[in-house]
Amino acid sequence: MILEMKVPSPGESITEVEIAEWLVQDGDYVEKDQAIAEVDSDKATLELPAEMSGVITLKAEVGDAVEVGSVVCLIDTSAVKPDGASKAEKDLSAQKEDASKKVDSEKVPESSQAKETYASGVASPAAKKILSEKGIDTAVISGTGKDGRITKEDAIKAKPSLGSPVTGGNRGESRSKLSMLRRKVAERLVAAKNETAMLTTFNEVDMSPIFKLRNQYKEEFKNKHGVGLGFMSFFTKAVVRALEMYPAVNSMIDGKEMVSYDFCDISIAVSGPKGLMVPVIRNAENLSFRGVEAEVKRLAIRAREGEITVDEMTGGTFTITNGGVFGSMLSTPIINPPQSAILGMHNIVERPIVRDGAIAIAPIMYVALSYDHRIIDGKESVGFLVAVKEALESPEELLMDGNIKKSLEL
After folding, report:
1. 372 strand-pairing partners
2. Which domains can be identified in the chain, with CATH numbers?
3. Cis peptide before 279 (omega within 30 of 0)
4. Where are the alpha helices (DSSP H) in 119-278?
5. How far apart are CA 393 and CA 395, in angstroms?
6. What does the pLDDT look like over 66-112, one tens digit per residue?
């Protein structure tokens, strides 16, 4: 029986996917539920599992855009699982044998050099590449190959003359097609720059109070809840508080209307194997510190292991991105459309500050809020970022209602 495997729908509004990589070769025997391909949509990279066991026939090439519901491969379910080496292993062996023959064909003894012919001074492809990297003209090389051809060995032994320019290194280049996910991200970033009136406001946060809380309670918190007490829970709670104070920041433009939300779905930027992923913490306003940390860990693991779903990355109302984990001191993050604002966290560095009239050294983080000026005024944007700063510098009072143990559920 021949089974037609069709492209499943990765999510609502997605009409096509791109074959990112075939994990099997044409003619291979595959097992049921074995991952046979990776496919890119404009939102995520997903694995395509075999629906049945059998011999596979591929019907699409890597890089092909395939519509959802169309046939991507055939599986002969009546085929018997072969013994011995697989087709892939045999093909690899054949490739190695061909390569060996090619190398041997280039190794021509010097004694076989003939008189000058039309081939004299012509470099083999490998020799031409080496000479190009060395900056040596083929005209100054005497070939030792058949009929005077310049071999790879001639190129390796060749030394530039005093007048020959030397590039000093490899000048090669390579090209690769952007994945559908990367192309979509690029389109969204350009659209955000071109279609929004984006501005960025900055501030600095003294992280000393949070450092003190974490150092005092992180071990007890981890032992009790099985998850670390990180910075994301403090920032998420501070953002939720500020969004409730400045609802315009938790809004979006839809045509000629402004849509405001009474819930806070916080998108968090995570670096995954296929690029930037932005999973969403749903109803963050209802989560405790433990709840936020557990959800951040869960989503980050799923994103980095390529298991994140489209539904888990759609519908956020505000985004937090942390360039500080890569060492960024300051940046202007780009809005994640259709959202209207994004908060950028950065690295924490000990800097001199004035505290109570005296200079002190404190762990300082610069924070940035990029916002759409079409619906968020300067007063609201600055007020929002100041509210985030105030909450982070007075977490016990503004984020924990004066009860640290209760807030951390210890």
Report:
1. 198
2. 2-76 (2.40.50.100), 105-157 (4.10.320.10), 182-407 (3.30.559.10)
3. no
4. 125-134, 152-157, 180-195, 208-225, 231-245
5. 6
6. 888 888 899 998 888 887 545 545 554 555 565 555 545 444 444 44
Residue 63 has phi, psi (to 5 degrees) of: 95, -10
Beta bridge partners of 320: 268, 343
User: β-strand 318-322 against 266-268: which pairing, if any?
Assistant: parallel
Both tokens assigned to 362: 């404190």
Q: Which of 16-20, 343-347, 352-356 has the lowest mean pLDDT?
A: 16-20
- Report the Cα 190 to chain-centroid distance in Å: 17
**350 φψ region: left (φ > 0), alpha (ψ -120 to 50), beta (else):** beta
Please give the C-alpha separations between residue 277 and each of 64, 94, 216, in angstroms, as whole numbers: 23, 40, 32
What whole-number distance in Å separates Cα of residue 218 and Cα of residue 212? Answer: 10
Entry pTM: 0.65
CB proximity list for 295: less than 8 A, separation 6 or greater: 281, 287
- Give me the active site residues, please: 373, 377
